[in-house]
Amino acid sequence: MAKGGFPGGMGGMGGGNMQQLMMKAQKMQQDVARAQAELNEREFTASSGGGMVSVTVTGNKDVKAIVINPACVDPDDVEMLQDLVLSAVNEALRTATKTVEDEIGKITGGLGLGL
After folding, report:
1. N or C: less crowded end of the chain, CB within 10 Å?
2. Range of the domain at 30
3. What is the pTM of this model?
């Protein structure tokens, strides 16, 4: 073993390999940032009650639109309308979250970076 060194260098990772790994990591970081920006602007729509209520959200989880069919507005059953809105919002957010995770996972190879 060389004085003050490691046997075999850096575990088989010479300077060239380390530089290549760093370049790949930097490219992945750029790809993730680009995909994240695109996905943040993408819109996802979900509906509930057979299409009586639909909600559109962005990948950034901003609610962009809530559309309520007037036929489902019953002043005697406000709770049903609230449930339909809540259900559609949650489904749209789940769809957005899953799509963002899946798309970023394709880039990172499932490294689980918590994005």
Report:
1. N
2. 15-108
3. 0.70
